[in-house]
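in:
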């Protein structure tokens, strides 16, 4: 089966950062996973090099746009091997082949009447490089770039996007997997509830020259999004290359939520107008924050993938990113979080299982994983076999759905089971008893075989570690092509040719190391204690938060917000708290309920209302990748104001 998977093409107005690395690593992982399942895979990434933003960045750097884009595109290209990311093709929108394809498509869409010339006046955000609708503004500003858009009126070419609105709604409704996780599908459908405007697809050369000239009017260049999205076709030789015939019908795009609209609305309607089938799936992930704050150059907390890989190692970094983020939701990066995962999941759980097992195989079975005597399996062995079987099934489902965190959770359940299996079966005791040698062999065969299977499923995530594991086990048999399908079959385990050098897979991370995050903050390394780095706090720090029982006397929706409720509470004195729970609770169901609040927070203004505290709630992850907030209700008998400690 063919698989075609793409990342966004990244703007070259900035150096690669954690966000770019994340999308590209998950796409790499998915493509390695599909290869393991026997697919012929094409994985494409690239750079988006036209448009105002790039022209401005070049001017700021004192470079010609051409030299500038060459330089930054090269740093993106050089980053991927450092992260063990292996794309099959790296496209640039300044490639002559791409320029030809864009012009060919523009001509085609123009000739069939889907492009027209008109005057437009609207509010333009330079950061987004598009006109924003009133509805998209928050307090008059672009919510992503926090600046007021400029009023611009000019003549331009427009793509008749509105013509395809009904078709698009129907297509999304008919194909539940077209946009996932579901929260983003719902977001797009909600957006499509309103009439869709046509898309402005040109910029006058009086304002911008760094773009692809419109083939039918040299006074204009192509709008950067119309140009950029087409990369997914150019990269496989549209319109008539063999790769296009093979891969287009299975195209899957991976993006973050910031560019949902161009991918979920502009792109399918453009394809429809060209007479092409839409892509197969769009996978949308959330945003990485850093220490729970937005990552931004001005805050000086931008994480560079190269530094991360150097500090923590490529495989631990890949594992952390995939395990820590619930696909679809935002996640927070911190040195403490990555060190904790490295020590707990990798060094402790997997690393110890591996080194204990190999040391015992080395000692008790002459340095070779013994073959399994299937007739002699006992109930413990069968439990392991069954767990491995279930793991492979879950792993396939979750990896296919881009829920990497769940796939890895399933793998780690087996790792824990195997660690318990060692304790219950105590091979060191069996070794002392000559009558138990057969049992000893089977226990070590189960451990060796399971480790090999773990290496196979970990290969897409941590390719270097998987290879090290297989080598150390002396089981380097065909590792690719449809290996996954036979993975649960113990009769198919490759024989061990003898153990290689027994390595420590993961060193424990020294928490005293200067963490990458702090290093990035304005060049000032913050001196943090070991406890702080590990996320532990002093009792006094916890006690500094005043938690109290509060009764909800009244609740109402906050105007113009679909997230906020205004709550009138008594603790027993009256206070107002604004809580982001409107999507989880109706105001009516809250009246009279008792909740827990953080009572000594500095007041904050939300949508013009002063909020005097915070209501505590748990975030419950749902199957579809979204999450629901659940308030912490307390016993109705408790008196408002009671202090919680
Ligand atoms: N050039 C456009 C995309 C055109 S695709 C036809 C663009 N480029 S970008 O450089 O801004 O990259 C945006 C993408 O980078 C996001 O969709 C996501 O894949 C990744 N990320 C950038 N910042 C991110 C985080 N903070 N967290 C996670 N990923 C983010 O938009």
């Amino acid at each position: 089966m063919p698989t075609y998977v793409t990342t966004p093409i990244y703007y070259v107005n900035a150096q690669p950062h954690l966000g770019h690395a994340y999308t590209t690593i998950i796409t790499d992982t998915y493509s390695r996973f599909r290869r393991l399942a026997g697919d012929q895979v094409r994985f494409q990434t690239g750079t988006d090099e036209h448009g105002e933003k790039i022209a401005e960045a070049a001017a700021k750097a004192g470079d010609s746009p051409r030299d500038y884009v060459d330089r930054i595109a090269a740093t993106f290209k050089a980053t991927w091997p450092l992260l063990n990311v292996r794309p099959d093709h790296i496209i640039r929108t300044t490639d002559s082949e791409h320029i030809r394809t864009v012009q060919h498509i523009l001509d085609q869409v123009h000739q069939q009447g889907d492009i027209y010339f008109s005057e437009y006046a609207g509010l333009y955000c330079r950061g987004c490089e598009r006109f924003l609708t009133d509805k998209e503004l928050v307090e008059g500003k672009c919510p992503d770039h926090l600046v007021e858009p400029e009023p611009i009126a000019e003549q331009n070419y427009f793509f008749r996007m509105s013509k395809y609105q009904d078709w698009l709604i129907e297509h999304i409704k008919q194909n539940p997997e077209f946009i996932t996780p579901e929260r983003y599908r719902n977001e797009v459908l909600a957006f499509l509830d309103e009439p869709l405007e046509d898309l402005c697809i040109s910029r006058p050369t009086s304002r911008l020259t760094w773009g692809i000239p419109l083939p039918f009017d040299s006074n204009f260049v192509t709008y950067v999004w119309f140009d950029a999205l087409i990369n997914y076709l150019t990269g496989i030789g549209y319109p008539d290359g063999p790769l296009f015939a093979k891969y287009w019908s299975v195209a899957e795009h991976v993006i973050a939520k910031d560019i949902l609209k161009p991918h979920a609305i502009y792109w399918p309607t453009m394809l429809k107008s060209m007479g092409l089938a839409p892509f197969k799936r769009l996978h949308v992930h959330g945003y990485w924050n850093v220490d729970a704050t937005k990552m931004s150059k001005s805050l000086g907390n931008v994480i560079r993938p190269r530094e991360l890989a150097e500090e923590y190692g490529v495989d631990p970094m890949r594992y952390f990113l995939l395990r820590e983020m619930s696909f679809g939701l935002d996640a927070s990066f911190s040195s403490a979080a990555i060190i904790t995962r490295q020590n707990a999941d990798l060094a402790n759980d997997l690393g110890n299982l591996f080194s204990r097992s190999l040391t015992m195989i080395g000692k008790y079975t002459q340095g070779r994983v013994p073959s399994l005597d299937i007739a002699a399996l006992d109930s413990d062995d069968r439990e392991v076999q069954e767990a491995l079987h279930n793991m492979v099934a879950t792993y396939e489902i979750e990896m296919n759905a881009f829920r990497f965190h769940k796939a890895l959770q399933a793998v780690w359940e087996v790792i824990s089971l195997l660690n318990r299996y060692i304790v219950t079966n105590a091979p060191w005791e069996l070794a002392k008893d000559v009558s138990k040698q057969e049992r000893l062999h089977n226990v070590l065969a189960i451990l060796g075989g399971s480790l090999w299977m773990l290496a196979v499923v970990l290969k897409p995530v941590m390719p270097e570690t998987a290879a090290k594991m297989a080598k150390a086990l002396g089981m380097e048999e065909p590792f690719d092509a449809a290996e996954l399908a036979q993975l649960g079959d113990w009769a198919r385990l490759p024989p061990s040719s003898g153990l290689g050098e027994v390595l420590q897979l993961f060193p424990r991370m020294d928490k005293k190391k200067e963490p990458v995050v702090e290093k990035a903050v304005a060049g000032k390394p913050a001196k943090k204690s070991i406890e702080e780095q590990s996320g532990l706090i002093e009792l006094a720090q916890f006690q500094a938060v005043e938690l109290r029982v509060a009764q909800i006397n009244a609740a109402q929706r906050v105007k113009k917000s679909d997230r906020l409720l205004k709550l009138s509470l008594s603790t027993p004195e009256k206070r107002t708290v604004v809580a982001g729970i409107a999507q989880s609770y109706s105001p009516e169901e809250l009246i009279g309920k008792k909740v827990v609040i953080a009572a000594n927070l500095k007041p904050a203004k939300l949508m013009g209302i002063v909020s005097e505290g915070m209501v505590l709630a748990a975030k419950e992850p749902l199957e579809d990748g979204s999450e629901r907030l659940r308030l912490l209700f307390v016993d109705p008998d408790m008196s408002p104001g009671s202090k919680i400690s």
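note: The chain has a mean pLDDT of 91.
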